[in-house]
User: Which sequence fits this backbone?
């Protein structure tokens, strides 16, 4: 997943089908899911994304607004695994594309991995991070712009 993001190439459905499960409502734990915290009125890529097409939508929105490192570039990142759960603790260093504003925040990416016949697939990915610094970078320092 991180190698795909780091490539700098647009991410399409075929790319994600190779690493995420397909969306199957009959088996709740078997669905491609990506959760990003924040207010969608302020951080346009915040929200819940279910299924390959919505996860592509997330990456399209995100890459149009910001550029960030991945744990592959943070040599101090820590991985914790337990069965089908993987948590990766790292520091996000990002830049807002339109303004050049930067931010640094600690983050945890929590993956739930499901074995398949042809390897493992990501069932869920939830990112936890301090949205305040990202919000201020995106809004140019305006606090709570959705209430202005």
Assistant:
């Amino acid at each position: 997943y991180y190698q795909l993001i780091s490539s700098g190439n647009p991410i399409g459905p075929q790319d994600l089908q190779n690493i995420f499960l397909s969306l199957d409502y009959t088996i709740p734990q078997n669905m491609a899911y990506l959760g990003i915290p924040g207010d969608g009125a302020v951080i346009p890529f915040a929200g819940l994304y279910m299924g390959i097409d919505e996860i592509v939508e997330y990456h399209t929105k995100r890459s149009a607004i910001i550029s960030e490192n991945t744990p592959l570039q943070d040599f101090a990142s820590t991985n914790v695994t337990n069965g089908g759960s993987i948590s990766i603790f790292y520091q996000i260093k990002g830049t807002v594309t339109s303004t050049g504003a930067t931010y640094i925040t600690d983050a945890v990416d929590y993956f739930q991995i499901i074995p398949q016949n042809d390897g493992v697939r990501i069932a869920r990915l939830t990112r936890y991070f301090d949205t305040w610094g990202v919000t201020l970078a995106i809004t140019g320092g305006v606090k709570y712009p959705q209430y202005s």
